[in-house]
Amino acid sequence: MFRLADLDNYIPMILFDVGVLLFWWKLMALLGDRRMLPSPESAMAAGSQPGDLYADAGGKGGQDGTWKNFPTIVKVTLVLALVVSFGILLEGALLMPWGVLVWGWQTP
Amino acid sequence: MTDSLVNRQSGEALTPTLVSLETEKKQRKGERLFFLGVLLMGTVFAGPLGLPLVIWGALQTRAAQRQGATPTIPWHVALVGGFTIGDAAANFLGWSIEMFAGRAIITHTAMFIYGTVFDGGYLHGVNTTQLGDAVLGGVNSPGEKALIIGAVLVVWPCRLAAAWGFMKAKPWALGWMITSTWMLLVFWVIWVSNAVIDTENRYDTYMGVAGWFVFNGVYIIGPILMIPYLYLVDHRPWLLKAHQTSLASTGKI
Asked: How far apart are CA A107 and CA A58, in angstroms?
């Protein structure tokens, strides 16, 4: 149950969350753009074009063949990870409505 | 989503196949629905609304691809990124409201339900901790409170931003996905240890010890299971973006 009087709790929370998220986004971009990953120069021959990266895949970056090349164990762990992640979202989403039905809203 | 990931202006190798505009639009629409659904599921409370959107979006995207539309990112990147966002957002939001709005009705009710069924730490003595003259809302266990602050400040926003960058093929994002996964592993070990030390308080619930681990175990197993994938996934989408950025900064394109 939403209570207008609770707004003074929620608003600082939203401002804070947006702020901390932007902070992390900026920090990652700042550090990462300074070559945390292997540099593109080291991955490609001098003078090559970005499109050359996908020359073996007909230029279709969105259809890379990684999945086919994964070892079975990686495929299994990833599928499990996704099933579990889905379960998390589902249990989080169902617990609250079920609990309110059983116990009703709780006032502090 | 990541329309700029596949550079359609740089040479013959990236020339798109001839598919109708309508099919391409269907593809984009499907992707947008998928991510909207994931974001809604990440709010926890609006989760039931998000689920149908996720399924509908995935079906639309699949149908468009069968008609020849080119995906903007590989499907497994979309899935991993999408579910990481959902998982991280659910945890980020859940602990944020505990930290800031512990005395709000929604939060108090959520803590009561979760505390009664799974984790006594969210039931016993909530909203009673004193911090100076103020009452600090939410759980009253010092260890749990410290971990919540650490998670809201560092772990979840870091992972959320990393997952978004991962899907946008930001050059830095793959490294941060891996980093934040290891960060999560360390965090979870500390969090479980803290709960075990506080056994009488935490496990005095309907579901007991087993229920606590079943509910909370899945929060970590998913991300940990992604580790092999993150190390082995084709790095070219992220390298491509870095290469484009590099060429643009040197004025070569």
From this structure: 61
